Amino acid sequence: MSDPILQVSGLTKVYAGGVKALDNVDLEIQKGEIFALLGPNGAGKTTLIGAVCGLVRPSAGSMSAFGHNLTKDWRRARARIGLVPQELSTDMFETVEHAVSYSRGLFGHAPDKARIEEILKSLTLFDKRKSQIRELSGGMKRRVLIAKALAHEPDLLFLDEPTAGVDVELRKDMWAQISALRERGVTIILTTHYIEEAEEMADRVGIIRGGKILMVDDKAAMMKRLGRTEAVLQLGQPLAELPPAIAAFPVELIEDGRALCFRGGDGTGKGREQVAELTKAVIGEGIDYTGIDIRESSLEDIFVSLLSDVEEAA
C-alpha cells in the first residue's frame, strides 16, 4: 500500500469551557479513495474537517498531508485541498462564474476560462453562469460550493454534508459527480447524515461519536463482519412449537406461529448459507412453507447498532 495522502495522529480539540470536540483521533486516508465519516450531530465530524483545512486550531496532535506538516507548512498543503462546507458562505450578489473564477485565483492559479467552463458544465451550472447566486435554488447553490472547491484543482476534497437539504433526484446526480471526481484521481472525504450515500459510494467508512473514532474499516469488510441476515419463512400451517431440529437454529415463531423468523450470520458473513440449511431442516421435518423473504443488514443497521452499544456501555 502506498503512503497515505493524509495522516492524523492524536488529534484533540478542547473548546473554551472544556467541551472536547475531538478526543485523540487517529486516521489515515489513502490516495484515490472515497472515505465516509459517519456520526450523529455533535460527534466531531465538522471539527475534524476544520482542523485539517486550517479553520480550527487543534489543542493537541499532529496532521500531515502530501508529506507536509499541516501546522508548520500549512500553505503548501492547503493549496492541494478543497473544501465544500456545510453552510453556504459566499457573496450572494456575485455571479456564479465570478465566484468560481475568484476561488481559483485565491490559491494562486492563473485564470483558465476553459477549466472554469468545464467545471460549470460538469455540475450543470453553465447555463446559470451569469446568474447571481442569490437567484439560484438551494441545490444549485450547493453545486456552486462544489464548483468553487474544484476551481483550484485539489487532490484532496472534503465534502461536509454535501447533499443536505437537496431532493433525492439531485442527491443521486451529485453522487454521480462525486464518482466522476474519483475517476479523475481526486481523493474524497465526506460526512453525511444519509448513510445510504456512504453505502453507495464509500470504499471505507469511519464512525465517530463524542469526538472519538469508534471504528474505521473497509465498507464491505465492516458489513460482512458486523452485519446479519434476517429471513422470514411464511408457513403453510401455524406451528404451536418448534421441533428440536428447527429450534437448534437462531429462530423464533412470529405472527402467532404462522411465520418463522431467522436472525443469524452475525460476524461470519454466512447468513445465507445458514438460511439454506434451515430450509432443508424445515423440509426434512415435513413443514410446508409458502414463501421466504431474506434481508441483509444495511450500513445504517450496523451504524445504529454500534451507537446503541456505545450508549449502553456508557
What does this 3D model show about the protein?
This protein has 314 residues and is α/β, with parallel strands linked by helices. 35% of the residues lie in helices and 27% in strands. A six-stranded mixed β-sheet has the order 6-7-8-3-9-10, sandwiched between helices. A hairpin with a 4-residue loop joins β12 (251-254) and β13. α3 runs parallel beside α5. The longest helix has 16 residues, at 168-183.
Approximately how much beta-strand content do the residues carry? 25-35%
Shape descriptor reads elongated
Helix-strand sequence: EEEHEEHEHHHEHEHEEHEHEEHEH
Question: In terms of per-residue confidence, which ranges show pLDDT below 50 for 5 or more consecutive residues?
Answer: none
Termini separation (Å)? 36 Å
Name the structural class.
alpha/beta
Main sheet, how many strands, which sense, barrel? Answer: 6 strands, mixed
What do the pLDDT scores average to? 85
Radius of gyration: 24 Å
Percent helix among the residues? 25-40%
How many β-strand stretches? 14
Q: Name the strands of the widest sheet in spatial order.
A: 6-7-8-3-9-10
Number of DSSP helical runs? 11
